[in-house]
UniProtKB/TrEMBL annotation:
Binds 1 zinc ion per subunit. It is an enzyme of class 4 (lyase). Zn(2+) binds at C87, D89, H147, C150. This is Carbonic anhydrase. GO terms for molecular function: carbonate dehydratase activity; zinc ion binding. PANTHER family: CARBONIC ANHYDRASE. Keywords: Lyase, Metal-binding, Zinc.
Amino acid sequence: MENKKLSNQLPGGRVGNMLAFCSRDLGFKPHLGRWIRTADKTQPDSHLTAYMERLIKGALAFTRGGQREFIKHVNAGYTPAGVLLSCVDARVFPSKILGAQPGELLILRNAGNFAPEHGEGGSNTVLSTLELGCLHGKVKDVVICGHSDCKAMHLLCSIGSKVTDGQLVEKQMSPLQKWVAGQGIKCWKKWQSKTNAVRFPAFKEEQLILNMRSDLIKNLEPVDIISQINVLQQMSNVYAYPLLAEKLAAKALRVHGFWFSVHAGQMYVYNPQREGFVPITEETLAELVRESAK
């Protein structure tokens, strides 16, 4: 009687009702003459669950152990000494790589570590962070940090010629393509020029003359050459911000270029005297510190 009652409640007869019941309510479907269980869409992906569990447990471990050290640094006062602009690449962990403590650095990240040219709408987040640190705070150093194997630079390499030739126009671009092309095409063109040195002429007395000798980068992968050129381009853009003009003119603000080799775990610093990026080692440390103070 109950089977008949069930059959009467649902359209399609007993066979149709059984198929519907198995597929909808029990999570099975017919496959090659037998019933197999389908994926349960109501349950979260096990990989995502495991990852989120690790993050939540990490937060608990911090509360149990690292919280005390964190609070000690935070309670010592909040006066950031620098602003650091880096890429969003998950392999680049600026505060850890540089040994910065909580409260020391204002860290701004975007795909490609771009500081858009003055007047572009995309510069609002960069400018607002620079205003917060340099005008309302006591920041005296701005660091632009690029890195090797940058996915944004890989994209720039792949679309650069299409953009300059007009084969790829803005309305055809994805948001990431539009961002990378808009901010990085100058770097791509400088790389394409194949000159003995990449030059960024100073247009203000207080600006460093940013040159890069081609012989120092000739053995790098093209994407890494563009990445290093990109750091200098963003430094040049920061020097041009009217917001910082007074601080720069008074020598109260310095702009630095860093570059991190992801696979070697080596940080480099741009040295204007050598016209290139120099690895931070025991041998170069004193020179780089002295040069960074100018």
